[in-house]
Amino acid sequence: MRKNIVAGNWKMNKTLQEGIALATELNEALTSDKPNCEVIICTPFIHLASVTPIVDKGIIAVGAENCADKASGAYTGEVSASMVASTGAQYVILGHSERRAYYGETPEILKEKVLLALANGLTPIFCIGEVLEEREAGKQNEVVYNQLEGSLFGLSAEDFSKIVLAYEPVWAIGTGKTATAEQAQEIHAYIRSVIAKQFGKEVADNTSILYGGSCKPSNAKELFANPDVDGGLIGGAALSVADFKGIIDAFKA
Ligand code: PEP
């Protein structure tokens, strides 16, 4: 059975002290009013070891926003998947459009990162999505197909089934523009059909596919109500407990 998930991506925000305060406040809010979905917070590397012990593991899981494409060694400034796992983190965002666009992360590099994450017991939250010109040219299906093929088609069905996908139209990230519920459902259903063809219907039915891009308490319910949208990857709204909890509560009746 696939899970409903709301995952926060803090990006490069919050000092260590501010991050601890945010995680503490979220933990308090969700222990007194339990969520109906899995909740994940993905934080900068330096927050991980401090945040994992202060959240209730049964309610909030922790993830990183990236990991290296190498296992260990002379790669100054990099953080490996095994280092991430050693903090108690369970997830790692890979292939975020900001990493692809600003740090030159190619499908081949991302393939290595996915393999290392899986080898170290981390669940990748693998991001795919088209830019505005591609959407306007009607190429969104082709773009997400190529992103899936380039980094994930080489996996066994067993390994693929450990992955969470996030469809994030780049034109909706941090812009205030959200895909309509119909646009989200249409492409999520397409993504699931691609998975079914490559890895089988059972794997496709069990894959959580999150929507990301200017998701807020006011639009989360409509987006998550779609049969192929299994929750959200949340950027800006994850930095406020009220907004993040408002999105989590979209899974309540
Ligand atoms: C993101 O960066 O993953 C994201 C969805 O950002 P935002 O919610 O701010 O659009």
Which labels suit this protein?
alpha/beta; 15% strand; 253 residues; binds phosphoenolpyruvate
Rounded to the nearest angstrom, the distance between the terminal CA atoms is: 20 Å
Stretches with pLDDT under 50, minimum 5 residues: none
What is the N-to-C succession of helices and strands?
EHEHEHEHHEHHHEHHEHEH
Oligomer: single chain
The number of strands is 8
Shape: globular
Strand content: 15-25%
State the strand order across the main sheet: 1-2-3-4-5-6-7-8
Question: What characterizes the major β-sheet?
Answer: 8 strands, parallel, barrel
Structural class category: alpha/beta
The hetero compounds bound to this protein are: phosphoenolpyruvate
Rg calculated over all Cα atoms: 17 Å
Number of helices: 12
Mean pLDDT: 97
Helical amount among residues, as a percent range?
40-55%
3D architecture notes:
The protein is of the alpha/beta class and 253 residues long. Helices cover 44% and strands 15% of the residues. The protein contains twelve helices and eight strands. It has an eight-stranded parallel β-barrel with strand order 1-2-3-4-5-6-7-8, surrounded by seven helices. α1 (16-32) packs across α2, α7 (140-152) packs parallel to α9 and α11 packs parallel to α12. The longest helix has 19 residues, at 181-199. The protein is globular and about 45 Å long. The two termini are 20 Å apart. The mean pLDDT is 97. The protein binds phosphoenolpyruvate. Phosphoenolpyruvate binds next to β8.
